[in-house]
Amino acid sequence: MASQFPLGNKRPGSQLAFLPETDADLLAECLVAFANGEGGLIVLGLDEDGRYVNEIWGEEAEGAFRAAASNCRPPVRGDWQQVETAQGMLIGIRVTRSNELHSLADGRVLIRSGANNRPLSGQEVHQLASTKDANDYETQPVPGATQQDFDPEIVAEYVTKREQRGTPRPTNPQNMLFEIGAVDQYGDPTVTGILLLGKRPQTFLPQSGLVFVKFPGTEPRGEDGGVGYGRRDELNGPLARIIERAWAITWEEMRVGATVNGLEREELPEYPPFAVREALVNAVCHRDYSIKGRRTEIRMYADRLEIISPGGLPGYITIDNLVEEHYSRNPRLVNGLYQWGYIEELGLGIDRMIEEMVQAGHNPPQFRETPYSFTVTLTNSRERRTAPRGAQSMNERQARALAYTRQNGSITNREYQRLFEDVSSETLRRDLVDLVERGHLLKIGSNKGTYYILK
């Protein structure tokens, strides 16, 4: 086993699965789901809550893996890994993202959805297959680029940030560049390497810049009604610098009001900072860099902020499943920006963006997709928070649910059931549906990942 992975208190999710037994069928499902998605780690011997269940020996695990691999079409590669837990070392199987579309022998195509393996619909399979068939643009070498085009200061900063995330400082920098996808097997810089570490990425990839434009009104016109804008900035450089500068400009142009709570004066920015940063980072790291002639755009109007990313949604992602699903067009760029600290935890940004907007009194973000672009729109209209109307017509359970949500920020079906253990789950489900329909709560996510916040 080549490396160790400290499990800590991590729980199953989009890139982590626990299997208590060496069940070849369940193992095959995880192999296919991870290979079709972002990859992940399968830990043997733990139940779904992370409790130690069985000691699994190497021969037993290897036999189960061979049986599981034979059930995958085409076979999925897995690398053995030691997993450090409180109970000692366990066996893990690391699965990397595949450029092929994998299915089980019975024809099911699975992806990882939260902590579950979900079969794809026919349309989703078609979308994912289209993505898999396309060239992996971020790993392609950049014609004319050499390692002399990497910025030593940016590389040093990346190594430091990576070390702060818990990755040891590399003993061989060249190996690190290959491992993170910055160079290919011949040592030539890739699209990933130039975008993350390049001195002047736009020399080779002019589409990788960002344009910020501020219009004085609600239409793309100047103050006199003609075509024009109040401010326009073109941002270039490696992606980390583009994100930093774009955020600084957007914050500078935001209106900042104030509210008084008791004797405390609190600044109130035009848009919740987290929502803006999340939309910005997503646009930069998930855009389709193979589309030439168009850069990422931020358009600020008097009533809204639009962040436009070239390229439609990747893989099986749609507007309808955007909150609960996750699939990256550029996983190496995503990992690089994670090391820089711009991405905290995969799969949690969109729902928190929605929550931050609603909690600040705004409408939820609007998402719009075309075959060639994806737009996130944040509106700055703000509703004043008042006590929910119609409280007198609520039952006692619903009133308590709202009080719980105000105190804790959100409520789940399970938390609601704990409050009323003697009431049927169906009755409680109808309570929450009613609160959503009457505009008191906003539903975030779906299936097991569903929770509710105040609207």
Chain-wise SSE layout:
Layout: E1 4-6, E2 16-19, H1 24-36, E3 40-44, H2 58-69, E4 72-73, E5 79-85, E6 88-95, E7 103-104, E8 110-113, E9 116-119, H3 122-133, H4 152-164, H5 173-179, H6 191-197, H7 201-204, E10 210-214, E11 231-235, H8 239-253, E12 256-261, E13 264-269, H9 273-286, E14 296-300, E15 304-310, H10 331-340, H11 349-359, E16 366-370, E17 373-379, H12 396-408, H13 413-419, H14 425-437, E18 441-444, E19 451-454
- Label the CATH architecture of the largest domain: 2-Layer Sandwich
Which word captures the global form? globular
- Structural class call reads alpha+beta
Taking the alpha carbons of the first and last residues, their distance comes to 50 Å
Tell me what the structure shows:
There is one protein chain. By secondary structure, this protein is α+β, with helices and mostly antiparallel strands. The protein has 4 domains: 4-121, Schlafen, AAA domain (Methyltransferase, Cobalt-precorrin-4 Transmethylase, Domain 2), CATH 3.30.950.30; 139-201, no CATH class; 207-379, Heat Shock Protein 90; 391-454, Arc Repressor Mutant, subunit A, CATH 1.10.10. Helices cover 33% and strands 20% of the residues. The chain contains 14 helices and 19 strands. It has helices at residues 24-36, 58-69, 122-133, 152-164, 173-179, 191-197, 201-204, 239-253, 273-286, 331-340, 349-359, 396-408, 413-419, 425-437; strands at 4-6, 16-19, 40-44, 72-73, 79-85, 88-95, 103-104, 110-113, 116-119, 210-214, 231-235, 256-261, 264-269, 296-300, 304-310, 366-370, 373-379, 441-444, 451-454. A 6-stranded mixed sheet has the order 11-10-14-15-17-16, covered by helices on one side. A 5-stranded mixed sheet has the order 1-5-6-3-2, covered by helices on one side. α1 (24-36) packs across α2, α8 packs antiparallel against α9 (273-286) and α9 packs antiparallel against α11 (349-359). It is globular, with a radius of gyration of 24 Å. The relative contact order is 0.09. The model is unreliable at 385-392 (pLDDT under 50).
